[in-house]
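Thread: "does anyone have the structure for this chain?"

Original post by V.I.:
We have the sequence but no experimental structure in hand. Need at least a predicted one for the grant figures.
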Amino acid sequence: MAETQSHKRAKGKAPGKTEVPISKNRRLDSATKNTATEIERNQQNLGKAVSRLKDSGRSRKVLQVPQNLMPEAAKIMRQKGIGGTVKNLSGTKKVSVRKNK
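Reply from O.Q.:
Generated one for you, tokens below.
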């Protein structure tokens, strides 16, 4: 399925290279040496995006979602046991998620 213009725009704003390969023939939307960034606009795909962040091996993980999905995204990150940041697409709000032990 083709990327929407808003997804391409958000991916381009994120720091680092875009479409960075990770294991199992998957790709991160954007990544630097220490930071992995995923942009996800659909609620049903949040779990997949969180799994990609978990498998990225980067120390900082950022999930960008529409503002109305921020609480759900934070909940899924806690359930999957990873810490990181959940930001809205414009970057004006963010929520830090602590890693479950």
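V.I.: this helps a lot. The helical segments are 5-13, 46-54, 70-80.
O.Q.: and The first helix runs from residue 5 to 13.
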